[in-house]
Specification:
Largest sheet: none
Structural class: mainly alpha
Distance between the termini: 27 Å
Radius of gyration: 19 Å
Strand content: under 5%
Helix content: over 70%
Order of helices and strands: HHHHHHHHHH
Number of domains: 1
Shape: globular
Length: about 270
């Protein structure tokens, strides 16, 4: 590891240290009852039942693509403890800017999540993935995909833990139901968002993959748009059957499958060469 990468690693760790306190320190300082603590453990166990298979799936994909576990671990750690608090800061900054243009409080509240999260979160999650790749000296597209998956997965885990803990400690309704709700939208969420966007950015700027630049643009734009619609009032419905969810899920998963097929294809090409 050269001097520049060592400096980058140090900065990465500083940012992660801030994130550890931001994400977990506040939770540890809460004055909660023993019953609430027990409920939190149960509710997090519900999340774990979903997250553990997801983690092992990412690990299996990494093995199939011949990507070292250190790529997965480094990007996952950064996604959990770097991209989260940076996204929070980014969302807050965009909120301040938007408040100068959107004066109607009802319109502002309805659209604030759609106008902040898709842009700040996708930027910082992908940036974290690329930072991990730079520190580790990885430039191959297989590592890019795994870093994107891992960064998004780390972000998703910490975000879901945050939502579930706030509901559990707030006592408004069952944290277990919140956990189930997070799982319901978890299959097509941050893990796949970041994987697709990270590979898309890589395709846009890599000189070795100029022929895929249009597809890279599609990956970035379609995913940000998907996240935007998910957070917008368009997503809301009074009916139990939500057609919008079906389309968003299908578009994201289908795009990820195409990304994965492209990475597999390029891996085989590299081996033949």
């Amino acid at each position: 590891m050269n001097k520049t990468r060592r400096i980058a690693l140090y900065i990465y760790l500083v940012l992660a240290g801030i994130g550890l306190q931001f994400e977990l320190g506040d939770m540890a300082e809460k004055d909660v009852t023993l019953e609430a603590g027990r409920d939190l453990v149960l509710n997090l166990a519900v999340l774990a039942a979903f997250f553990l298979p997801f983690y092992f799936l990412i690990k299996k994909i990494a093995k199939k693509l011949s990507v070292e576990t250190i790529v997965l671990g480094t990007a996952l750690f950064g996604g959990a403890f770097i991209s989260g608090w940076l996204s929070f800061a980014g969302n807050s900054l965009i909120d301040i800017i938007n408040s100068n243009f959107i004066k109607d409080p009802v319109v502002f509240n309805n659209w604030t999540n759609a106008l902040t999260a898709p842009f700040a979160e996708e930027f910082f999650k992908s940036l974290t993935a690329f930072a991990a790749l730079y520190i580790l000296g990885r430039k191959d597209i297989q590592s890019v995909l795994i870093a994107g998956l891992s960064s998004g997965f780390g972000f998703q885990v910490i975000e879901d833990i945050g939502y579930v803990s706030r509901v559990t400690f707030g006592g408004q309704y069952s944290g277990s139901l919140e956990a189930v709700g997070r799982i319901a939208g978890g299959l097509a969420s941050h893990t796949l968002y970041t994987a697709v966007v990270t590979v898309g950015v890589y395709l846009l700027f890599s000189t070795a993959y100029k022929k895929y630049r249009l597809f890279g643009l599609w990956c970035v734009v379609s995913t940000v748009a998907n996240h935007f619609i998910w957070n917008s009032p368009f997503f809301e419905t009074e009916h139990r059957i939500n057609i919008v969810v079906g389309f968003l899920f299908a578009f994201l998963v289908a795009t990820f499958i195409e990304v994965y097929r492209l990475v597999l294809k390029e891996k085989k090409t590299d081996l033949e060469i």
